[in-house]
Amino acid sequence: MKIIHTDEITKHIKEMCIEANLQLTPDMEKAIKGALEDEKSKLGKQILKQLEENMEIAKKENIPICQDTGMTIVFFKLGQEVRLEGIPLEEAINEGIRQGYQEGFLRKSVVGDPLLRENTKDNTPGIIHYEIIPGDDIEIIVAPKGFGSENMSRIYMLKPADGTEGVKNAVLETVKMAGPNACPPIVVGVGIGGSFEKAAYLSKKALTRNMNEQSSIEHIKNLEEELLEEINTLGIGPGGLGGKNTALGVKIETYPTHIAGLPVAVNICCHVNRHISRRI
Amino acid sequence: MDRYIKVPLTEDVTQELQAGDYVYITGFIYTARDAAHKRLYECIEKGERIPLNLENNVIYYLGPTPERTGQIIGSAGPTTSSRMDKYTPLLLEEGLKGMIGKGKRSPEVISSIIKNKSVYFAAVGGAGALLSKKIKYSKIVAYEDLGTEAIRELYVEDFPVIVIIDSQGNNLYETAVEDYLNTTK
């Protein structure tokens, strides 16, 4: 049994919100630089050069990489042998977001009521996904998600007969519809299986994977590779202005599903695919 | 080709610009995004005066991050333009000559761009830190209560954009992807 005070969680969330928005993870940076090296389109190359320069300025001058510092998505894995002390966990997490967005000079983009649309002025509440894990550790991922790409995401309730081909068509259709709107080059998170909401959750979780990490399931890994290749023959390219690098990666997560269904969610993320993790 | 232009943007300038041109804009422009557009639109519809002069001006679809002490503005990249499509034709009728954003526009907006001899530019999405360096002055001029969505007056110097839809209706998003695909055949 480990005792963790929720003040500590607030502090970590605050720091993670700031850090995630100022600097991409090394694997994301490397993916963008790699795209610059192998891009064939002249316009595409110029766009990627600007993105590279942008990352440097953000880091050096403490300016967020993108002005859309996102809605804060938190994946919170709680070891079942941890005892929490202090204020309720959800309040502690939201307090961390509140402090991070204030102290980090990040944009407050959350409106309280989706129809009345009044800004909450502190970017809370975040979207929190809890998971209980064995042991006495806490693992936190903070992923600020911009809505330029979020708005271009789709969910499909396919038939079992649609199979792998159906999944591919769904992903390609979503990427084509997004076109230049989602700030390509993009990262594509795909959730296959489960239920309506589980597929959407999986597609978001897939985006938090390291860019170099492929699926551990052989046929899913192959599907990731095939989809990346097919997306990159669409020609949409950086900024949607033509080129090879429409997507930097495709990440797929799966879950068992019902005999009658094949849910597929496609969560698109721009090249500013922010996710930072810590273990307490 | 590379072009250096100044705002106010007159029709003789917008008519010279071609889809695919690299344009560096200097001058005073306004920011406005979703909530500000809704207010401007409703104001005009009711016949009320709007708090800015759109004549020959340019709107940048931007909601910046807050500036730190000593900074003029925070991160300042473009937001997705299509969310403004419902409001754009009316603003173009009111004299607006240019828009800076990213992403596709509706057929209604494209028709209105042609009719009003205006132009749609894109800045690079997700390059907010880089683009903020081209902004030399920023002041909220209307709808302060909207926070990041308030209307700001900016002075930009050589602000880098690309002409996506020109006053003849040529659309770079369509032609550039086609051109690229043709070269890889």
Automatic annotation (TrEMBL), chain A:
Gene Ontology molecular function terms on file: 4 iron, 4 sulfur cluster binding; lyase activity; metal ion binding
The protein's name: Fumarate hydratase
Signal sequence region: none
InterPro entries: Class-I_Fumarase/Tartrate_DH (IPR051208), Fe-S_hydro-lyase_TtdA-typ_cat (IPR004646)
NCBIfam families documented for this protein: PRK06246.1, ttdA_fumA_fumB
Domain of life, per lineage: Bacteria
Alphabetically ordered keywords of this record: 4Fe-4S, Iron, Iron-sulfur, Lyase, Metal-binding
Protein family according to the UniProt entry: Belongs to the class-I fumarase family.
From TrEMBL, chain B:
Domain Fe-S hydro-lyase tartrate dehydratase beta-type catalytic span(s) in chain numbering: 9-175
InterPro entries (alphabetical): Fe-S_hydro-lyase_TtdB-typ_cat, Fe-S_hydroAse_TtdB_cat_sf
GO molecular function: hydro-lyase activity
Keywords per UniProt: Lyase
Gene3D superfamilies: Fe-S hydro-lyase, tartrate dehydratase beta-type, catalytic domain
Family: Belongs to the class-I fumarase family.
PANTHER family: L(+)-TARTRATE DEHYDRATASE SUBUNIT BETA (PTHR43351), L(+)-TARTRATE DEHYDRATASE SUBUNIT BETA-RELATED (PTHR43351:SF2)
Name the UniProt record assigns to this protein: Hydro-lyase, Fe-S type, tartrate/fumarate subfamily, beta region
The organism of origin for this protein: Anaerocolumna cellulosilytica
